[in-house]
């Protein structure tokens, strides 16, 4: 099927369970009927007029209203902007206005976020209220094959979903009905999703991960969907058991939170088969499978759809996979555009030629990237020299397997040697006291960078500097420039709204943070507390070199390698 609208219409007459949360159970037929009713209402609320876009915003938790309105937009030929409820004030208003939403669907819990915001011409619907139910009631006889707002084609715009915005104003990536339907079918086929499966959506649906990698393959395969309003580590297993979930997606540090929950003899009492996501790391993926019996598959696909990597059974540990069929992916030097040489490893797995092998991943072939909404500058940055530039660092081995090395902003340059934050993080994650790890660069007093790590410890664990140093010494694949010069011990890692590590926040506070920091005065010295006196000595060193002290206003970044 070439459009999401066709997939929604196909649910009509299917009386198996299709959508659940802790309060509601709907059949597939009821989901299609609910989408049709909302599509009919949408047609009345925002008639097709020249110069006005058929866009609606969803400022919702993962309630059944979210997929119902996605289906409604698909049937009506409208587009949904996922609005991030962690945004506030002018930023929130900017997201709604930028995506030209004429209707905003929300819930009572989020109404205070809208107080005083200048949103002229935006009709607000509050789902968990009697007026909303009364407004929707007259359209209860609508059918999915009725005529709605606009004719639907594969290139009809369906999603405007924002990037995480951790490094600037978010950009709204465009996704058409055809691309979403094709992505759902591809993932359903790749993972063997069956119509009797249940996809558990616990990641926020305002982000592309939950919609593209969880909801869409369920819709394509005719599988059921179960929702958790917001991710909860303590509710994960009870939900998985209650709903009979077989598949879920994750991003960022969700897996670490699940591993930090107390172990029980019943951790494998469920039907969960597979988790698909990013940034779990090989160590935590192995721990998750050993404990819960479900396999985690690390994937890669930029939110914008410009490049994808597929994992195959022969993918080495630490690698993501190879280019998807039809993609011409390359790792290139962003300055010269020359292809980087293959990675060379020592017998213990140390990357020996990081300076040469690490580059930016580009797609030199046909890219499904459909642009950003009204942002030609961002489009131009992505599509340079006829290629799609992902903004992600990778290296490739001699067999063509690709290894993620971080964002282009996550490159570190220590003593004239380029390092990748993701590589160091994967090694530090092996420490049995660490629940979460983030590695980032802070400016060196003279030139280049120094390595700083933030560690969130497991419950009941304390930071032991001697034990940590001994652990580092035992890691045969930890290069001599990789050990952290500074270690910040945090209760939990700061996250963006999509559960990715907020490295900008970590770099911004750096050595001026409130939490304890341990440091090595020289690269081989024992770790010791960074005292106030030591901070002042360091500050003078930075001042002498006319470099900003890490954590002072303005010391937010680092020279790129």
Q: Please compute the radius of gyration using only Cα atoms.
A: 24 Å
Largest beta sheet: what is the strand line-up? 2-1-10-9-11-12-13
Structural class: alpha/beta
- Gap between N and C termini, in Å? 46 Å
> How is the main sheet built?
7 strands, mixed
Q: Which assembly state applies to the chains in this document?
A: single chain
Q: Catalogue the unreliable spans.
A: 553-561
Number of strands: 28
Return the average pLDDT rounded to an integer. Answer: 91
Share of helix, binned: 25-40%
**What is the number of helices?**
17
Q: Label the overall shape.
A: globular
Strand residue content: 15-25%
Would you write up a description of this structure?
With 561 residues, the chain is an alpha/beta fold. Helices cover 29% and strands 22% of the residues. The chain has 17 helices and 28 strands. The strands form 6 sheets. Strands 2-1-10-9-11-12-13 form a 7-stranded mixed β-sheet, with helices on both faces. A 6-stranded mixed β-sheet has the order 6-5-3-4-7-8. α8 links the parallel β9 (198-201) and β10. α1 packs across α3 and α2 (28-45) crosses α3. The longest helix is centred in the N-terminal third of the chain and has 18 residues, at 28-45. The radius of gyration is 24 Å and the shape is globular. The relative contact order is 0.08. Mean pLDDT is 91; it is low at 553-561.
